[in-house]
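note to self — DONT lose this again. spent like an hour looking for the file last time. sequence + predicted structure for the chain T wanted, 157 res
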Amino acid sequence: MTGTATGARRTAAAALVLTLSAALAACGGEDGGGDRPKLSVSGAYVPQPPTRDMAAGYVTVTNKGGTADELTSVTTSLAGEVTMHTTTGTRMKQVRSLKIPANGELRLATGGDHLMLTNLTRKPNVGDKVGFTLHFASSDPIEIKVPVEPTTYRPKD
């Protein structure tokens, strides 16, 4: 075999390996590739609490991915503890996590599911920005700056 023929075969073999590698990568790996949750956060706010004891927090987490995720906890320097609550009718219940459906959203809003911030380090003022870190079952944490709004604030949909 000549050097030119051997070189052509090696080049063809290398091209085949690169093509197959690219095709396999496009199919996704063991984690499902495009099926992973794709989370974004919007509409977050904290109404100014009337007292220094506790506050509420609201946020919308949108998932444009093909797999569900869960909000497992929220941390902030404003509160010693942040708990998650569901609301059915007039009944509020503390939960360990909140589901974020695939291709859907988790909406925390007044009168519904929400965050309760207790053991506040200070009473926040309207216009302040409060740092929150949202933690999830399978996605990386998301850090956000949350504005403090007037007590009577209601977002426009």
